[in-house]
Amino acid sequence: MDPIIRVESLHKSFRDLHVLRGVSIEVNRSEVVSFIGRSGSGKSTLLRCINRLEEPTSGEIWIDGVNIHEPYIDINKVRAEIGMVFQSFNLFPHMTAIDNIMLAPVCVRKISRQEAKERGLSLLEKVGLAEKANEYPEKLSGGQRQRVAIARALAMQPRIMFFDEPTSALDPEMVGEVLDVMAQMASEGMTMLIVSHEMGFIREAADRVLFLDEGKILEEGTPDDIFNRPQFPVTRDFLGKVL
Amino acid sequence: MLKDYTESNTFKKLRDTSGRVPLIRQPVFLIASCVALVLYGSMLFWASGEGLVIRIALSVFVALLVTWTGIIITDERRGERLKTSMVFLVLAVLVLLFLEFHVTNSEEIIELFFNITVIKKAWPYLVLGFKTTISLAFMAALVSTVIGLTLAIFRSFDNKVLNFFIIAYVDFFRAIPIIVLLMLIYYGLPFLNIRLSAFASGVLGLGLNSGAYVSEIFRAGFLSVSKGQLEASRALGMTPWQTMQKVALPQAFKAVIPPLVGNYVASAKDTALCSSISIIELLKAGTAQQSLNANPSPLIFVTVLYLILFVPLTRLCGYIEKRMKKTQRQITV
Ligand SMILES: Nc1ncnc2c1ncn2[C@@H]1O[C@H](COP(=O)(O)OP(=O)(O)OP(=O)(O)O)[C@@H](O)[C@H]1O
Ligand SMILES: [Mg+2]
Question: Which of A80, A86, A93 sits opposite B251 (nearest CB)?
Fold first, then answer.
C-alpha cells in the first residue's frame, strides 16, 4: 500500500539558520510515529512544514499521493485532512467549546450547523467533556482545553493527526487524561505523528520512533529498538536525560 | 496603601505623640464651635446693614468657617461621606452669603449670561445646530471606521509596498491640524474643480483625520491576536479570509472597543472645528445667535448642551474600559 505521507529530502532554513537538513520519511496508514530529539532539533518545524504552516526551503512532500507543492493544489483542502494539536491549545477564546469544534466543519466542510453540532457533541462525549459544551475555554482546565482542541481537530474527520508536544504545557496530573484520549485514537487506527517527551506513552502507543538530531533523522526503529538498543552516543545521551 | 497613608499622616502624629487627642479635635470643641458658628452666621444674616463693620464681620465669619471645615477635613477619623457633605454645605453657605450681600450684581449677571428671552429666541437655531453636530459626528465616525478598518486589514497582510502607503497616510493625517485639513478641503479643492458641500467637507476632513487613528487602533487590535490563533485556524483548513472573519476580527474587535469609543468621542468634539467652514453646527449656531442678540446667553447654553452630550459619553468610555479590563484577563487558550 502507498504511504499516506512521504517526505523527501526536506530542507528548511530560517534566514541563515539551517533547521532541517534533508529529512526523508514515509508514514503508512494507521501508523503511529513519534518524533523525539533535543530542543531545537527541528521537530516542530518538521510537522509544520508537512502542513505548510512553514514553507519548506526545498524538498518534496506527498500527502495521500498528492504533491502538496504543485501549484494547483488547494492547501486548505490538504490541511483539512490533517488535524493539528498544539502545545498551547490555541482554542478560540471568544467561542464556547462546542462552537470551537463546529467552526471548521461548517466553514470548510460546509455541513449544516445541526449536523456539526451533533458531531461535535458526540466528540465531546468521546473526550469525556459532554457537560462542558457551552463553557468558554477560559473556564476549562489545561487538560480539558487540550481535549477540546483534540475534539476540534477530529471534527474535521481528518485522515492524519499531528501532535506537537500536546502535554508539555499541562500540570502533571492532567497529562494522563490527554494521553488516554490519544491512545484511544491510536487504537482506532488513526494515522498519528506525535512530538512528545512522554517516553512511557511513546513506548506503549508508537509503532515507530524517529530520533531527530540537528535537522536530520539520526536513528529510527521500534520503541524497543530505540529505547533499549540505541545505536548512537547522541541518542543514548538524550535518552539518558529524559528517561 | 490607604493604611500606609494614614499611618504617616502628620495629623495623626500630632495627636498621638502626646498620647492624647488635642483639644481642637475633641468632639466637645467641635460641637461647641459648630453651634457658635451657626449662631454667629444667623446673627449676620439678620443684622442687615451697610458699611465696614458688616464687611469685617463677614470676613471673620468666612475665615472661621473655612478653618473649622479644615479641622474636620484633615481628621482621618471622620468618614469620607461626612467630609464631602461638609464641603458642599460650606459652599452652599458661601453662595447664600454672596447672594444676600450682592443682590444687585447677581441680577445683572443673570440678565447678561442666563437671559431666558434670548435663549428662547435662539432655541430653534441651537437645536438645529445640535442636530447638525450629531450627524456630523456620526457620519465622521462611519467614514473613519471604513477607512481605518480597511487600512488595518491591508496592513495586516504585511506587504512592504502597501505598508509604505498606509504609514504615509497615517503620518500625514495625524500630523496635519484638523482645521487646516478642513480649510484645504473646503476652500482648496474647488480650485481643482472638486466642489463639496460644507457638510460633506466637514465629514471628509474629520473622517480622514480620525481614520488615521482608527487604523492604528485596529492594527493594535490585530496584533493582540496571537499567531497561535491564526495558525490554529489555518491548520483546520480555513482560508485567510475565513480566519480574518471568524477568528481575528472578533478578537480584535473586543480589544479595540474601549480605545475606539474614546476616539469617536474625541472626534465628535472636533466637530466644533467645522464652524470654521460655515457649517452651522452647535458652536456656529451659538456664536451667530450671540451676535444677533448682542448677548452671550446662547453661548452659555451651547456650553451646557456640549456638557449634556459629552459628560455621559466620556463617562461611558471610562466604564467600558473598566469593564473590559475586568473581563480581559490575558489567558493562553
Ligand atoms: N519562525 C521561526 N523563525 C526563526 N527561527 C525559527 C522559527 N521557528 C523555529 N525557529 C528555530 O528553528 C529551530 C528549530 O525549532 P523547532 O521549534 O523546530 O525545534 P523543536 O525540536 O520543536 O524544539 P522544542 O523541543 O523546543 O519545541 C530553533 O532553533 C528555533 O529557534
Ligand atoms: Mg517544538
Answer: A93
Ligand 1: residue whose CA is nearest its atom 29: A40
User: Å from B236 to nearest chain A CA?
Assistant: 5
Q: Read off the pLDDT band of B293 (50, 70, 90).
A: confident
CA-only gyration radius of chain B, Å: 30
Kindly identify which residue of chain A lies nearest to residue B231, measuring between CA atoms.
A53
Q: What pTM, to 2 d.p., does this model score? A: 0.73
Rounded to the nearest angstrom, the distance between the alpha carbon of A154 and the centre of ligand 2 is 22
Mutate one of A92, A95, A163 to test the B interface: name it (highest B CB count within 10 A). Answer: A92
Q: pLDDT per residue over B224-266, tens digit each?
A: 899 999 999 999 999 999 999 999 989 988 888 888 988 999 9
Instruction: Note the pLDDT tens digit of each residue in A21-43.
Output: 999 999 999 999 999 999 999 99
CB contact under 8 A, B237 and A137: no
pLDDT at A1: 66
- Check whether domain B116-332 has CATH 1.10.3720.10, yes or no: yes
- ipTM field: 0.94
Helix H, strand E, coil C: the string for chain A is CCCCEEEEEEEEEECCEEEEEEEEEEECCCCEEEEEECCCCCHHHHHHHHCCCCCCCEEEEEECCEECCCCCCCHHHHHHCEEEECCCCCCCCCCCHHHHHHHHHHHCCCCCHHHHHHHHHHHHHHCCCHHHCCCCHHHCCHHHHHHHHHHHHHCCCCCEEEEECCCCCCCHHHHHHHHHHHHHHHHCCCEEEEECCCHHHHHHHCCEEEEEECCEEEEEECHHHHHHCCCCHHHHHHHHHHC
Q: Where are the domains of chain B?
A: 21-104, 116-332
Chains A, B: CB contacts within 8 A come to: 76
d(CA A78, CA B239): 12
pLDDT digits (tens, 9 = 90+) for B57-81: 888 888 888 888 888 888 777 778 8
Pocket flag, ligand 1, residue A144 (CB < 6 Å):
no
pLDDT at B1: 39
Between A78, A82, A88, which is nearest B228 by CB?
A88
Residue tagged 456656529 (cell numbers): B284
